[in-house]
Amino acid sequence: MNAISQPEVFQPARTSDEIDLVELARALWKQKILIAAITGIAMALGLAYATFATRYYSVQTVLRPAAIKDLDELNHLGIYKLSPKAALQQVAAELDSYDNRLRFFRENQDLFGSLVGPGASIEQTFEAFNEKAFKLLRPDAQAVSTTPFVGLQLTYPEDVKGVEVVNRFVDFSLDTVRQRIEADLDILVGNRLSQLERQMDAARVNYEASKEVKIAKLTEADNLKRVQLQDELNALRQQLRTRRENRINQLNEAIRIASSLGISKPTTPSTLGASEQVIQGSLIRTEVNNQQVPLYFMGSEALEAERTALMQRRSDDFTEPRIAEIAKALKLLETNREIEVLNSRENEDLFLEGLAGWREEAAKLRAIAFDTGALKLVSVDQAAVEPLAPIEPKKALIVALALILGGMLGLFVALVRHMAQGHHSKA
Q: In whole angstroms, what separates CA 181 from the centre of its chain?
């Protein structure tokens, strides 16, 4: 039998460009000194950078709301209200204020070392520093319940006095807020005093107007009363004059009657009728008569005497008591004592309604001597302290990266060298 031929196993032919990993590894191993040298150089460079690069440090301070008792004296002034939370917010606003930071930078150049270089203005230097250095810390807005606080973090190079910068800047901001509160107090006190002065001036004007109105009313009432009394007096005098003239006319008529009857002396009707009768002995007459005896029975002599007296009378005022009362009233109206008292007041402010309260409040406002310098606006929960180590550069990380990158560079150089040698040998 013929031997069965075995099928040939197909093996693909190797191309010239196919990479043999084992051979590549051997080639790289042969160049291990080169790879190690490049890695060492890279690590040395990284170590040198980590050693000589500018170190940056980070410090921070944390402020919390002050106690209520710390702001109690300010709030009890009655013209300025400041809660611990509001005070913390004002301080936070100053810590975050660009203008406040710039003023502090200008006034404390000794704390910032050699930041200000030649050819750069203070504003430009501060702009570059402020952009990366300061960071305001606040509670997480999404937190359910957190204690209010405000923090300030500063990242700074080694030639800057970072701890002193943070602590002094916090004090600087607190002083700024205190100065603003003092200015606000001065303005509020001044405004309230001006308001009180305006109220007192308005009260004085109102008092003067009220006094003038009162005097005018009193004067008008006196004038009206005087005119009414004068009219009444004139009417009474006219009435008395008419009455006297009527009486004279009555007397004239009675005199004529008495003269015609031959009555010269006072008599009565019964006596007049019995004058012709002869009476023997004593006689007592009693006459009862309910009718008025005519005037002419007074006799012509008496009537003429009364008429003469009436005709010679200069005034009838004494015959009417009311005239004396009117004269008294007119005399009293010559001077109104209430008007005299009103016009003779020397210190009219004493009669202003509400003046005592306004003066008391003004005296309290002028006596305010609140020391804002001792006002504790916040509680320093954490002051800035010297850091234990810089945050940059991170030596271990830099050296590790240098080692990795150096090794990768060494392998790349060795690989390029090997491939270059392979092409050269084929050629």
A: 13
pLDDT of residue 202: 92
Within its chain, how far is the Cα of 226 from the centroid? 55
Q: Is 380 helix (H, G, I), strand (E, B) or coil?
A: strand
CA-nearest of 187, 188, 180 to 377 is 180
Residue 222: CA count within 13 A, CB half-sphere: 16
pLDDT per residue as tens digits for the range 219-248? 999 999 999 999 999 999 999 999 999 999
Q: Where are the domains of the chain?
A: 204-272+291-364
| 87 token code pair | 């005070």
The answer to whether 333 touches 224, Cβ cutoff 8 Å, is no
User: Looking at beta carbons, which pairs linking 196-203 to residues 24 or more positions away fall under 8 Å?
Assistant: 196/358, 196/361, 196/362, 196/365, 197/362, 199/354, 199/358, 200/349, 200/352, 200/355, 200/358, 203/352, 203/353, 203/354, 203/355
Q: How far apart, in whole angstroms, are the C-alpha atoms of residue 131 and residue 120?
A: 16
Q: Which two tokens stand for residue 47?
A: 């170590």
What stretch of H or E contains 56? strand 56-65
Secondary structure percentages of the chain, helix, strand, coil, to 5: 65, 5, 30
Q: Could you tell me if 180 and 372 are in contact, meaning their C-beta atoms sit under 8 angstroms apart?
A: no
H or E element, residue 378: strand 378-382
Order of strands, sheet of 134-137, starting from the edge strand that comes earlier in the sequence: 134-137, 150-157, 56-65, 378-382
pLDDT band at 189 (very low <50, low <70, confident <90, very high): very high
Give the number of residues written for the chain. 427
The whole-angstrom distance between residue 425's C-alpha and the CA centroid of its chain comes to 96
Enclosing H/E stretch for 155: strand 150-157
How far is the C-alpha of 238 from the C-alpha of 231, rounded, in Å?
11
Threshold 0.70, pTM exceeds: no
Q: What is the pLDDT of residues 56-82, one digit of tens each?
A: 888 999 999 999 999 998 888 888 899
- CB-CB contact of 101 with 169 (8 Å): yes
Angle in degrees, 0-180, between the axes of helices 162-261 and 98-107, rounded to the nearest 10: 120
Round to whole Å and give the CA distance between 205 and 199: 10
Return d(Cα 203, Cα 60) in angstroms, integer.
58
DSSP 319: G
